[in-house]
Specification:
With about 190 residues, this protein is mainly β. It has one helix at about 5-10, and strands at about 1-5, 30-35, 35-45, 55-60, 65, 85-90, 105-110, 120-125, 130-145, 145-160, 160-165, 170, 175-185.
């Protein structure tokens, strides 16, 4: 079974993180990893991250599997869910179409590729616990119909909500900066 979202679907449904997909895809549960709140761990039909083994669900970003650590099978961190062209979930064992075998399925994140026209956007967000973020992208045709560049960036920061009574620090905060550069060259027709 396949569940797919286009860029317009992701924007309309306000899907900005993997956890925003909970309840929108049958049999899918995404929770923070036991190793850290910034790492999300997908589970499809009960198959997910296992300790000291390959993950049951592999996340692919631009058709490349995101590496998992050898202990908790955690894959990547935050900042992957911006300027996406589409997002797909493939349920069930995957291995014949992809280079890595999985028992639960695959999550495919496809970033927006450079286009032959000028386009720019910027978006800001505010949230609880002093959450603030900025996201933007720029699509630039350098040489008409031959060389195109797309740059995207996202910044997010939020204070923690757990107070350490020993040193007064706010724990459970989020903060990341990520940037993406896409280049498309078509030297001949």
């Amino acid at each position: 079974a396949v569940t797919a979202f286009t860029a317009k679907d992701l924007e309309r449904e306000q899907i900005n993180t993997a956890q925003d997909l909970n309840g929108r895809v049958p049999s899918l549960v995404i929770n923070p990893s036991s190793q850290g709140r910034n790492v999300e761990s997908p589970t499809i039909r009960g198959q997910g991250a296992t300790h000291s083994a390959s993950p049951g669900v592999i996340i692919y970003y631009g058709e490349v599997p995101i590496p998992a650590d050898s202990f908790s099978s955690a894959q990547g961190g935050p900042g992957k869910f911006f300027d996406l062209e589409n997002l797909q979930f493939l349920k069930g064992p995957q291995g014949t179409l992809f280079g890595r075998n999985t028992t639960g399925g695959a999550l495919l994140l496809e970033p927006h590729k450079p286009d032959p026209y000028f386009e720019a956007s910027i978006k800001g967000e505010l949230g609880n616990f002093e959450g603030k973020g900025v996201e933007g992208d720029l699509n630039l045709p350098v040489v008409e119909d031959q060389l195109m560049v797309r740059v995207g960036a996202k910044y997010y920061e939020r204070e923690g909500f757990t107070k350490d009574i020993v040193n007064g620090a706010n724990l459970d905060g989020k903060g990341y900066r990520t940037m993406r550069l896409g280049l498309m060259w078509k030297p001949v027709e």
